[in-house]
Amino acid sequence: MADIQRYLNLVTSQHQNKPKFAAWLSAPLGILDDVVSLAKSFNYYFDIDLAIGVQLDTLGEILGVERAVTFQPTTFYSLGVTGVTYYNNPSPVLDDDVYRLVLRSKILQNMWDGTLPSLYEMWSILFKGAYITVKDNQNMTMDVSVSGLSSQMQKDLMTNGYIIPRPEGVAVNYIYLGDPFFSYGLDTDDFKGYEDGYWAQYF
């Protein structure tokens, strides 16, 4: 309404006190004001950090990424304290938090320039406290070593190509570890020596 009043204030004194004229002028201005308000709300409702539910689904349609993944997530089996075996059979339809991660990944993949430095930059944007090392084996394969992922679903998404881009025709070996990798003579976030480093697991 504030924008409408700005235009009504421009009406000459001859028509200032004419309520029918003001109503006639306000009608189309009200429609335009609603359009402006809607346009201003787009950034909020479709901000990937704030969007939920069908808003994320709309972003997914734009990016070409469906909420339902093309694989069955890993099923967990565990022995409870009472001796009963429990299992968790995750749905291939992603919840908002995981779907948001996949959408962010797709956006970054679309911006990837094909270099390793930009791949590492992409990873640092997606994950805090998790680390990645990529090795080009020079034989159309590459090893992707990952430590610190917080869930099996994240590993499943990695293995099935939802997180980092794969160059056409290149096979990827994924190596997962919850702690820093073992390595001789290194002491970094990714690699540790004896007592702190752990052997990796291939997938």
Automatic annotation (TrEMBL):
One Pfam short name: Phage_Wedge1
Highest rank taxon of the organism: Bacteria
Protein name: DUF2612 domain-containing protein
Lineage: Bacteria, Bacillati, Bacillota, Clostridia, Eubacteriales
